[in-house]
Task: inverse folding
């Protein structure tokens, strides 16, 4: 495995021992494929973060643990790594643990591993369950702060939340749905990736509350649980629309929108309004093609900057942001951001 980094740096980045990293690099026997992957990923991360290795300020390892479709995780990684020079002279070294589907037990095991090996902070996008809350409390007991990102664990031992104001986002979606749908519309489809993601659940509650206020007769059909992944999302939507009412509008909180559109097309339905979240590659393509009405977007770089600032402040570096909830940006095919 070609590389130019000391074994110690690879071990710090991967969270493995130097002995294990040495076994992988020298292709010795009895090393699992998962361990090979962790070392390979760590080297790729070091390549992208090479400037940080030479930084002379305090070194801080932040672990970013995320359950999300790969398209969103890639955006989080890019946003995080684009900020590193902004925090000099401190040397921020993010380590990533991403999974498209992460059970409660898997998430807790990852957080427990971080607690054993040590970390200066964790950015967590995970499910709001009692076991995950306890894992966060265990990290706090080890003096490892946790900032929740994009979806919160309210009332837990987390240090702070950084991300979109999800209740406001849901109410904003209801406002546009009410204004754009014809008066004779009878039903809208709402899709979440997981009800256990508290942020998406807040979006749904805000959407439902506001829509019931302005359109009390409009039915909301819930097609959630697909994880934002194509096969599962398409199956969930297909099941809900097969024998349900005609769908006039869609509010997609959890992604997988090509699958949502395909399921509706297969059912012979073409909604008048489709409101989605986040400017990932799927939604950009759908916006350009005029298949989405609008996207409610928030600046991932600003969110990750706020998360890192909270963690730095915990260690006595700088000041924590006073406001760490993102403003909503409304993006249509007419105001797409220019490519960087």
Result:
């Amino acid at each position: 495995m070609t590389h130019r980094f000391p074994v110690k740096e690879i071990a710090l980045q991967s969270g493995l021992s130097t002995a294990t990293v040495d076994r992988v690099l020298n292709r010795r026997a009895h090393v699992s494929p998962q361990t090979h992957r962790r070392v390979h990923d760590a080297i790729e991360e070091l390549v992208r973060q090479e400037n940080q290795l030479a930084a002379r300020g305090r070194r801080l390892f932040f672990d970013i643990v995320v359950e999300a479709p790969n398209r969103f995780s890639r955006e989080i990684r890019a946003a995080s790594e684009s900020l590193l020079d902004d925090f000099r002279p401190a040397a921020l070294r993010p380590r990533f643990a991403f999974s498209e589907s992460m059970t409660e037990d898997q998430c807790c095991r990852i957080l427990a591993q971080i607690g054993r090996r040590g970390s200066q902070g964790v950015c967590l996008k995970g499910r709001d369950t009692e076991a995950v809350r306890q894992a966060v409390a265990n990290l706090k007991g080890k003096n490892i702060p946790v900032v929740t990102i994009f979806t919160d664990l309210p009332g837990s031992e987390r240090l702070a939340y950084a991300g979109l104001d999800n209740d406001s986002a849901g109410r904003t979606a209801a406002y546009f749905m009410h204004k754009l749908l014809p008066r004779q519309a009878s039903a809208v489809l709402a899709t979440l990736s997981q009800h256990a993601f508290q942020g998406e659940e807040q979006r749904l509650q805000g959407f439902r509350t506001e829509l019931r206020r302005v359109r009390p007769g409009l039915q909301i059909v819930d097609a959630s649980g697909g994880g934002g992944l194509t096969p599962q999302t398409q199956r969930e939507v297909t099941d809900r629309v097969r024998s349900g009412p005609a769908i006039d509008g869609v509010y997609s909180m959890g992604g997988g929108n090509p699958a949502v559109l395909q399921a509706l097309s297969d059912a012979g339905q073409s909604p008048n309004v489709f409101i989605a979240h986040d400017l990932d590659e799927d939604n950009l393509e759908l916006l350009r093609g005029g298949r989405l009405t609008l996207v409610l977007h928030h600046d991932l770089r600003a969110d990750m900057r706020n998360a890192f600032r909270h963690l730095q402040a915990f260690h006595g570096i700088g000041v924590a942001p006073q406001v760490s909830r993102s403003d909503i940006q409304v993006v249509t095919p007419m105001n797409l951001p220019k490519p960087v």
The mean pLDDT is 90.
